[in-house]
């Protein structure tokens, strides 16, 4: 099969599917992306494109996102036209709709089916906006959110079918979208993830850590409100007071992925350090920044308790990966987390807004490991059954692709 993948940040949600197709052999795979630094992948032709237009700094706020998406979409369409004119006409286009990259695919390839990834539909209620009372939305927020949704509203007309990774994410979209959206997660390679009693980590002057140490872990792309970094920091003093041997490993950058940026030099981390720093034993807190995947895996395997915090928003791969590694997890009691985790069965759920509840649950996990020993294995069993790439997610992805292409071009499981 000839497949054109489209994602500005290659490989994005297609990491596992792309690797499987390469391993299967016999396919012509082209990946259209803005990411120049991604290493070449054997069996995949990477084509880098540039947006045709970017909004000016003083662009009108209500049209900025659409202007950016239209410029991105037209740049991607020009690259598609170049591929077409050079002789590459795919059997299917598979791509992310969030940045407008698929908006004009049909203008270039009118007879080629398009399978779009739909990640989130912005809402004034039920999502991260307005969830944190410390960050109330401004008067213009409903208008900005509605304007931002111009991209998915147009994208649903530009694709033949859409995929959402979770039911909660699908249900953020209007009812009119539903008959064109299937729920199909990207998938986790649970065969490559599991517990490791022998895991160790060298922290340099801070020493080498092992499972003999009392380790608590927290992972996010960036340390920010949407992923509950402020809740973690406010819980640290109580955790440390109750567990004087506990050490906290924090993985994440200092930027902003979602929501507002911090106005302080040093980002949101600097704000929280100023707020609670005098109460924290910093010798037992280790900020590791962003780490390679192998290091992330080792860090989670080391932990006796893993903290996953999020507002109602897109579910992180890291939660499912931690579950696959049999981590004992304390997580936010919000709808997207409840879709994959049951309190007292596969993890512990606590009120996102309550640092004391978080500290209490973490302390209890550390103090009574035997009472929580079944949570990690149950979490792994749930992820293997429902989110394993090879056995659960790949068959659904193949079915979605095959439904759009002629019988003679279909993928073989």
DSSP helical segment count: 14
The geometry reads as globular
> How do the helices and strands follow one another from N- to C-terminus?
EHEEHEHEHHEHEEEEHEHEHEHEHEHHH
Please report the total strand number as a whole number: 15
Task: Determine the fraction of residues in helical runs and give it as a percent range.
Answer: 25-40%
Unreliable spans? none
Strands side by side in the biggest sheet: 3-2-1-4-5-6-7
The quaternary structure here is single chain
Strand content: 15-25%
**Whole-number average pLDDT?**
96
Largest sheet: 7 strands, parallel
CA radius of gyration: 22 Å
Distance between the termini: 13 Å
| Category by helix and strand content | alpha/beta
Which labels suit this protein?
alpha/beta; 6-stranded parallel sheet; 36% helix
Give the structure's gist in a few sentences:
With about 425 residues, the chain is α/β, with parallel strands linked by helices.
């Amino acid at each position: 099969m000839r497949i054109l993948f489209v994602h500005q940040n290659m490989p994005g949600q297609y990491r596992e599917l792309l690797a499987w197709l390469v391993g299967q052999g016999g396919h012509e795979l082209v990946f259209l992306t803005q990411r120049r630094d991604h290493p070449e992948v054997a069996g995949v032709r990477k084509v880098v494109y540039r947006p045709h237009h970017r909004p000016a700094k003083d662009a009108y706020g209500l049209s900025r996102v659409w202007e950016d998406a239209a410029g991105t979409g037209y740049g991607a369409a020009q690259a598609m036209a170049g591929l077409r004119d050079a002789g590459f006409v795919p059997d299917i286009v598979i791509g992310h709709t969030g940045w407008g990259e698929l908006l004009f695919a049909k203008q270039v390839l009118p007879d080629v089916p398009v399978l779009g990834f739909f990640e989130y539909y912005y809402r004034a209620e039920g999502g991260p906006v307005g969830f944190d009372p410390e960050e109330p939305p401004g008067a213009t927020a409903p208008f900005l959110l509605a304007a931002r949704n111009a991209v998915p509203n147009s994208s649903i007309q530009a694709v033949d079918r859409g995929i959402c990774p979770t039911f909660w994410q699908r249900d953020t979209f209007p009812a009119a979208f539903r008959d064109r959206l299937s729920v199909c997660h990207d998938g986790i390679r649970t065969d490559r993830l599991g517990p490791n009693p022998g895991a160790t980590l060298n922290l340099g002057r801070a020493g080498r850590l092992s499972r003999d140490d009392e380790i608590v872990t927290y992972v996010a792309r960036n340390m920010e409100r949407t992923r509950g970094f402020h809740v973690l920091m406010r819980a640290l003093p109580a955790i440390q007071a109750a567990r004087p041997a506990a050490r906290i490993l924090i993985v994440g950058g200092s930027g902003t992925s979602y929501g507002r940026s911090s106005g302080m030099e040093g980002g949101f981390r600097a704000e929280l350090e100023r707020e609670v720093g005098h109460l924290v034993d910093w010798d037992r807190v280790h900020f590791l920044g962003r780490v390679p995947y192998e290091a992330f895996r080792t860090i989670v395997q080391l932990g006796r308790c893993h903290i996953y915090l999020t507002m109602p928003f897109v579910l992180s791969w890291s939660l499912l990966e931690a579950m696959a590694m049999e981590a004992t997890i304390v997580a936010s009691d919000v709808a997207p987390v409840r879709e994959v985790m049951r309190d007292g069965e596969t993890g512990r759920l606590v009120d996102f807004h309550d640092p004391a509840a978080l500290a209490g649950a973490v302390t209890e996990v550390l103090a009574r490991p035997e009472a929580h020993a079944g949570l990690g294995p149950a979490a792994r069993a749930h992820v293997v059954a429902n989110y394993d790439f090879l056995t659960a997610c790949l068959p659904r992805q193949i079915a979605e692709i095959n439904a759009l292409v002629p019988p003679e071009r279909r993928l073989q499981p």
